Each structure stands twice: as structure tokens, then as C-alpha cells.
Amino acid sequence: MDAPVSSQQLVRLLADDDRCKIAAALVLAGEPLAAAEVAEATGLSIRDVVDSGSRLVSGGLLDGDADSYSVIDGVFQHAARAEAPPAPVSAHSDQPDDVARVLDLVFTDGKLVQWPAKRTKRLLVLDHLAQQFDIGKRYKEIEVNDLLRPFNDDVATMRRYLVDEQFLDRGNGEYWRCGGTF
């Protein structure tokens, strides 16, 4: 068979009781079986096994003939994977996968919805927030708040974490970026 079997094709193939019994017997056996062995395992006649088996072979579920039938490797897995919804596109696809996973968990539609409990993950969030600040530029507190507010209304907590973890420094009423990924 050229194309992989879809889940809909599998359902159609297995909708017939005889074909379903044959496929089940072969899956449970875990090895190729002759038509006579399948007939014994299913209680079907050899003729029914051969007729239904040839339909399963032409449908792409089985390989072989009356001498030896076997389930094609990976046919069920492929059909299941083909039906799985596509993985969502990360809003942080510009980041390494491990960082993007953390950011995708704590940010929803650009908003910080929760702080990670683990410090290492919290540092990834703070690094992401620190990227909003230009290196070498000094910011008044109101400017810092304006840059952080789109992420979360609790700007005081974000500002404090950024300073405490040395992503931002402050002095004389000003803040500047002193850490994070440059």
C-alpha cells in the first residue's frame, strides 16, 4: 500500500465483526499467524478468514496472505498521530524550546498570569521582562511601570523581583538594566 491508513479507513475496515476479530487476534498474538491459526483463535471459518484477511490486506491494515498474516507495523500509531491536533504555535518561538515552554505556561495572550514557584523558572520570566529595557538607558519609575503594565497590573511585584534578582538596578529615583540575556 502506498499511502498510510487514516483513522477513518481503519474504522471502516474494522466495522465488520469478522475483520475486527481477525485484526484483534493478530494484534494480541504479536506475531504473524496463518489463516488456520487465525480461524482457531477467532472461531471463524478458514474461508471467512481468507476473505476478510484479503480485504484487510488491500485496505492497508495487514500484510501477507493465507500462509501468514501480520499487522503492518505502526499502522495504528500513524493513524492516531495523524488525527492528533497540531501542536500549538508558541508565542515565544524565538526562544529555546525549554524557555518557550515555561513562558507559554505563565503568559496568556501576553499577560503574566502566574509566577512560577521554582526560582529557575521565575528567572526565565524575569529575563523575558528585562528584555523590555534598553541597555544603558535610565528609566524613571513611571517609565518602568509603563513598560511592565502590559504584562501584569502588579508592577510593584515585577519591579521588586527584577531588582532583587539583579535584572534591574536602581538609584536616585532611576532604574537601569544590569542583567539578563544581552
Q: What descriptive keywords fit this protein?
A:
182 residues; alpha+beta; Arc Repressor Mutant, subunit A; 2 domains; two-stranded antiparallel ribbon
- Beta-strand residue percentage: 5-15%
Q: What overall form do the CA principal axes indicate?
A: rod-shaped
* Strand order of the biggest β-sheet: 5-7-6
Number of strands: 7
Q: What's the CATH C level of the largest domain?
A: Mainly Alpha
Helix proportion: 40-55%
Summarize the main sheet.
3 strands, antiparallel
Kindly state the mean pLDDT as a whole number? 92
Structural class: alpha+beta
Identify the CATH architecture of the largest domain.
Answer: Orthogonal Bundle
CATH fold call of the largest domain? Arc Repressor Mutant, subunit A
Number of separate helices: 9
Q: What is the helix/strand order?
A: HHHHEEHHEEHEHHEE
Summed up, the domain count is 2
List low-confidence stretches: none
Distance between the termini: 53 Å
Whole-number radius of gyration? 30 Å
Question: Secondary-structure map with pairings?
Answer:
Layout: H1 7-14, H2 17-29, H3 35-42, H4 46-58, E1 62-65, E2 68-71, H5 75-83, H6 97-106, E3 107-108, E4 111-112, H7 119-130, E5 138-140, H8 141-148, H9 155-164, E6 168-171, E7 174-177
Antiparallel strand pairs: 1-2, 3-4, 5-7, 6-7
Protein architecture, described:
The protein is of the alpha+beta class. It folds into two domains: 7-82, Winged helix-like DNA-binding domain superfamily/Winged helix DNA-binding domain (Arc Repressor Mutant, subunit A, Orthogonal Bundle); 97-177, Orthogonal Bundle (Arc Repressor Mutant, subunit A). It has helices at 7-14, 17-29, 35-42, 46-58, 75-83, 97-106, 119-130, 141-148, 155-164; strands spanning 62-65, 68-71, 107-108, 111-112, 138-140, 168-171, 174-177. The strands form three sheets. Strands 5-7-6 form a three-stranded antiparallel beta sheet. The chain has a two-stranded antiparallel sheet with strand order 1-2. Strands 3-4 form a two-stranded antiparallel ribbon. A hairpin with a 2-residue loop joins strand 1 and strand 2. Helix 6 packs across helix 7 (119-130). The longest helix has 13 residues, at 17-29. The chain is rod-shaped, with a radius of gyration of 30 Å. The relative contact order is 0.10. The mean pLDDT is 92.
